[in-house]
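Researcher: Last one for today. Full complex below.
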Amino acid sequence: MTVTIRDVARLAGVSASSVCRALATPDKVRAATRDRVQQAAAQLGYHPNRVARGLSTGRTGNLGLVVPDIANPFFSGVVKAVQNRAHECDFSVLPADTDEDVATEIELIHTLTKQVDGFLLCAPRAGDEDLRSVSGDIPVVMLNRRVGRIPSVIFDNADGVRQVITHLVALRHRRIAYVAGPKTSWVNHERARALRTLTASMGLELVEAGNVSPTYVGGVAVADVLLAASVTAVIAYNDMIALGLISQITARGVRVPQDISVVGFDDIPTADLVNPPLTTVSQPKERFGRTAVDLLVDVLGDRERPGSSRRAAPMQLVVRKTTAPNPKEFS
Amino acid sequence: MTVTIRDVARLAGVSASSVCRALATPDKVRAATRDRVQQAAAQLGYHPNRVARGLSTGRTGNLGLVVPDIANPFFSGVVKAVQNRAHECDFSVLPADTDEDVATEIELIHTLTKQVDGFLLCAPRAGDEDLRSVSGDIPVVMLNRRVGRIPSVIFDNADGVRQVITHLVALRHRRIAYVAGPKTSWVNHERARALRTLTASMGLELVEAGNVSPTYVGGVAVADVLLAASVTAVIAYNDMIALGLISQITARGVRVPQDISVVGFDDIPTADLVNPPLTTVSQPKERFGRTAVDLLVDVLGDRERPGSSRRAAPMQLVVRKTTAPNPKEFS
DNA sequence: TTGTAGGCGTTATCAA
DNA sequence: TTGATAACGCCTACAA
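Model: Here's the assembly. Have a good evening.
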């Protein structure tokens, strides 16, 4: 049925171990043997069974990547970036979608644990304890979140918030709302905190609304609250909320961005095309993903000869594009 | 380090095989033993090693899902649907993104082959021969494409095209363009063929443009050709092309949809929000994904007792929503 | 009902 | 340089 190392061995007239060597370490075997083996392997269409190899070596060549929602353009972008980089490092990526659910998050990690060498975790919801526990069993790199001493790659949310505020202030906004995303989201906390600190220090008024679900519907739901708060600008936890918001605000007869400006984090490919215009704040997913992979690969390497420990360089959050009344390009 | 079946056996004071039974077939073991084992397992936090199990049983409990672009909303929708259904059938899903590249497609399939029980393949580009070969090694279900006698789940493209044309004709369009997607796309061929047949039989004029890449840029690139063709309606291979098209057409001072109607297949979550309006044709991804999983699971089951062979019921393509001048809801 | 033994495909160790 | 042999963790006859 399926061709094994022994089939190749038989055809090449050598032992299984020689086949193994001829394929893995061609220089540790006589040239003639190597050729015979390689030809036999090719002829039979032999592919080493990675599962069996994993059992024997303890290394699978796979990286697990856990994201809350693979249909969210931000995360699918991360998946792409991770795959590209992982491939360059000779790793395969097994992406897993937790559907924003903590329970499946943990479950998925367990079923995947023995099939990967390490995890890249976008787990904004899971409890610190769970994550620490996972990190004890298997190498883990956290994305966009800090938990204890677990290696992580994060955006510089404070700086991103600063850029947004600078932008809005330049447009003469003084009373600004923040629509909070999921209460348990780490990034949400960071952004809210940064906003509070910054607006306070600049003498701006900050109105906090939410928490709402990070969806179009969430944005629709919070619109009336915002209109009643008489702010001139709104910063939304993400683009989807911002879109719902704009839709509902407009339906109420309020003009965007003349009467009220809307800014959303993350980026949906077509968000720019929306009318009325949405100011989008985007994160450099490509570099984000690459860095995360590099860090995890480092950690895996260090495991061989333990002792060293690394820390990720924090990343810039970049306001990439704006369609606000007074367009301005940040980077 | 990692807790194995033997650790549990020791703690429970039984043999490894009893642990195995107590966990897999609790009824084939004495109640007392079962309890002792289960408690020991819980206490140690034992999780069976799926890799080892796979080696022994030949079944991994994983389904491979290959898609050309996980960032494309159509495919991420399929991934979601597949995961939901697979989970109900006690399977995990390993999604793989081929980046629209035939070579990685094949490569990915090989590295995944021993880690899954079967494949769900969205491989619009790969050659028939490659796919047949894969299908010989391991159970395969093709999505949105027919290759020989490989089980497959497809949309009824002809019917979908009929709905679109009916819609446009009701709006008095007589001269209609089709913007073809990738030349090697099976679905593209099907749609073009259906369009030719149908328009001919209805006495409509069909202008074919393209092929273009299935992206925003592809749409921009083809706009001038269409304007020169003096059609009143355009059907695009997908939403991304349609968006680029609208953008460029509008930039040329032509109004959408007053001067020209644009229809796009697939659906991007925010496509409805675009202005000028885009008529979207959406496919029922949820049911699509579910059906594919069911079919593959069937095939896997039949493998045990081979002999039977199944065929997927073709699926309806549904025009779900339109923002055209004379809105009309199909379903 | 339970335990023992063998095997799944590979790699690593150790002799030869 | 090569070939037995053991081990990875689990499952399943088969025997007790």
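The mean pLDDT of chain A is 85. Chain A touches chain B at residues 2, 47, 49-52, 54-55, 60-62, 70-71, 73, 76-77, 79-80, 83-84, 92, 94-97, 99, 108, 110-115, 137, 216, 243, 247, 268-271, 273-275 (CB under 8 Å).
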